[in-house]
Amino acid sequence: LETLDRHLVLSAMPPSWKYDGVPYAERLFRCQLPPYDNDGQFDDPLPDLIHSGRPVVYATLGTTFNQSPDTFQSIIEALGAEDVSAIVTLGHSFDPSELGAIPKNVHVANYIPQTSLLPHCDAVIFHAGFNSLHSALWHGLPMILIPMGAGDQVPNAMQAVAMKVGLIAQQPLAVESLRQNIRSVLTDSQLRCNARKLQAEIKALPPVSEAVHRLMVLARESA
């Protein structure tokens, strides 16, 4: 780690986001790193459900830990029983038809760009991966976290709870417990307020152009 961190470390998170027992790198630079996806290559319209007037909840398990039909089915069952409009993306691993009947208030797709969808959402259910975490906070959204086993997912989930921006779903995933989480994350104004505070901190960081400048300086110094 000392070798990796000795020159420059870029972080997309503000100083208040700090993992217990993990020291900051000596040459840490925090900056805005706006979420990125393939929105420019996606021409399909967003699902009509986002205009229903109900709270919009987005669920994803990312692109690596999405090989879990049982987890998706539990999420869909829980969302289908609530007065919400739900958008669930599966990735390209399997066909949505494999999940059987889908409730009318749930839209299932393989892929929808988060940069297009998240501005319409009220909460996010996801696997606690860093990219989805950062994207949710970039948009000031409270979250339900379902860690799926990668090294950073449990620490991310625990820190989200410590910062009071999200809830960790009970494991193994139970539909009724997840329904309670959904109700809580949509009605707890403190979760939303804290998520928006973190959003403001993230967007107050220096722009990514400053990170590019520092990389150029590092390249000249190392030449």
How would you concisely characterize the structure shown here?
By secondary structure, the chain is an alpha/beta fold. It is built from 8 helices and 8 strands, in the order H-E-E-E-H-E-E-H-E-H-E-H-E-H-H-H.
Characterization of the model:
37% of the residues lie in helices and 13% in strands. The protein has 8 helices and 8 strands, in the order αβββαββαβαβαβααα. The chain has helices at 2-5, 69-80, 114-117, 130-138, 153-162, 175-187, 189-203, 208-222; strands spanning 9-11, 28-30, 56-60, 85-89, 106-109, 123-126, 143-145, 166-168. The chain has a 6-stranded parallel sheet with strand order 5-4-3-6-7-8, sandwiched between helices. Strands 1-2 form a two-stranded parallel ribbon. Helix 2 packs across helix 6 (175-187). The longest helix has 15 residues, at 189-203. The chain is globular and about 60 Å long.
Which percent range describes the beta-strand content?
Answer: 5-15%
Q: In total, how many beta strands?
A: 8
Task: Describe the largest sheet.
Answer: 6 strands, parallel
Structural class: alpha/beta
Record the SSE blueprint.
Elements: H1 2-5, E1 9-11, E2 28-30, E3 56-60, H2 69-80, E4 85-89, E5 106-109, H3 114-117, E6 123-126, H4 130-138, E7 143-145, H5 153-162, E8 166-168, H6 175-187, H7 189-203, H8 208-222
Parallel strand pairs: 1-2, 3-4, 3-6, 4-5, 6-7, 7-8
Helix pairs in contact: 2-6
Features:
alpha/beta; two-stranded parallel ribbon; 8 strands; 37% helix
